[in-house]
Specification:
The complex is a heterodimer. Chain A is α/β, with parallel strands linked by helices. Chain A has helices at about 45-50, 70-75, 95-105, 110-120, 140-150, 170-185, 195-200, 220-225, 265-275, 290-300, and strands at about 1-10, 20-30, 30-35, 60-65, 65, 80, 155-160, 185-190, 205-210, 210-220, 230-235, 250-255, 255-260, 280-285. Chain B has eleven helices and no strands. Classes of the chains: A alpha/beta, B mainly alpha. The structure holds adenosine-5'-triphosphate and magnesium ion.
Chain lengths: ~300, ~260
Amino acid sequence: MQALLVKDLRKVYGNGLIALNNINLSVAEGDFFALLGRNGAGKSTTIGILCSLVNKTSGKVFVFGYDIDHELEAAKSCIGVVPQEMNFSQFEKVLAIIINQAGYYGIPKKVALPRAEYYLKKLGLWEYRHNTVLRLSGGMKRRLMIVRALMNEPKLLILDEPTAGVDIELRYHLWDFLTELNQKGTTIILTTHYLEEAEKLCKQVAIIDQGDIIQNTPMKLLINTLDVQTMILDLVKPLSSDIKMNYPYRIIDDTSIEIEINNRQTINELFHVLNEQHIQVSSMRNKTNRLEELFIRLTSKNGILS
Amino acid sequence: MNTLTQKNWIAFRTILSKEVNRFMRIWTQTLLPPVVTITLYFIIFGKLIGSQINPIEGYSYMQYIVPGLTMMAVMTNAYSNTAASFFGAKFSKSIEEMLVSSMPSSIILLGYMVAGTIRGLLVGMIVLFISFLFTHIPIRYPFVVISIALLSAMVFALAGLINGMLAKTFDDISYIPTFILTPLTYLGGVFYSIHQLHPFWQQISFFNPVFNIVNTFKYGTLGITDSSVVFGFLLILSLFFVLFLWSLHLLQKGIGLRQ
Ligand SMILES: Nc1ncnc2c1ncn2[C@@H]1O[C@H](COP(=O)(O)OP(=O)(O)OP(=O)(O)O)[C@@H](O)[C@H]1O
Ligand SMILES: [Mg+2]
């Protein structure tokens, strides 16, 4: 069963802007799916259509087999969504917000309360349950949006930049939390501009650019298509002469160099060459995250960035 | 109850209690102002000016205006509850909490409509009780009183919902009170009998919903009427169905709610 199936989805906003040209997507049940794209690519528009906050212009959407044109309520009961922008009534209290959210799904209080307690504790909000939203920090509000989205125990959780403005420690915590949810069977769709996050969490990735899907593959396959990666090496001693090797390289300063390695070469070979010339390396790292490097190449072909 | 009705019932109760809590919590903005305004009306129009006006159809001027003022309070409060609350939810985007959930549009409609109706009736009752402090108001036909009060509260709660949905700014939600409710009220026989109008305007007034609401309520309380009560009641009933279907259509299409 597909958790999500999107066919020929098109969205033209009232002002004539074509936000989605022709989107086709399929997300398998149990997947952890990254939907990536630059600002304005159409990620939030797509998500808005999936959870019926945006009317589509044409195309088909099936959520766990339910057609949103004909079985909207059944489709919606499978989804939990964390929107990109805050959408709370500022004067309401944390606990009231999530109990009401459960209520909208027809979940009685006696089921909702223990569930609320579980997730609030899990995301460190339990002690703030009697606070109004107005008195929460930005990161707390993000977490509250996640708790709210989980109140109906959705089979498909959609997160639109859930870690924007969240501190590092908490981000790691959220990653663990989401991984655990996914392992327990929740299908997750995630958008993010932190590509390291997508690479770490997601099994499948789609890249959307100017309203079209330009990539849709397993994360590992995509990363493997990267034919060149740039490594930065820190040297123990400054270089005394040029290095003799067939890797393109650039000297950054006395003790650091940048080397490009293509995917037919191995790092072992590189070190072999360096050893022969008695060049000692104290540390090594990728210049950019691999997914980031790919992403920039893929999306800049298509447009403005290049 | 099957699961679906049970779920819808829980969703309905969630909206209702949230909405009632809202207007109760801010009672100084929702319940108190109409009471103050109406008391002033009673003092100025009823006591001070009214004492110089001849009785109308056997009732003092004070008694004559109580039904109209009561219904005015019912209508404006039912209206402003849904209009302000729904637009507020739209403005803060918290409306999305309801839109993404699995409850059908009809439940959102009913939740808001009933909450607005409760506020309208509550304020109406308070106003009526205050009037008892000033004068004696008979209740000739309790069934007529209750049904027209209920029906008009529902009609105006729906009008507020529609206005809240279509409004783009906070100013837009005062359109109906300013351009429809107030003129219709002043032309609606709250302060005078429409028999005092030119026949042409009398004919027009027979189709004024506010006139018919006030007139029916006047009939239920004082037992006097300026026109056919049955026609008036049916007119308001049809208005109710029209507004109900219209707001359901707007909600289902997401007009003013979804891009
Ligand atoms: N309500 C709207 N009316 C008109 N155009 C809109 C509206 N909302 C979004 N757009 C446009 O649609 C396009 C896609 O926007 P969308 O919000 O889906 O992008 P996104 O991929 O989520 O971007 P970001 O990473 O910045 O959140 C953009 O060009 C945007 O300007
Ligand atoms: Mg977005």
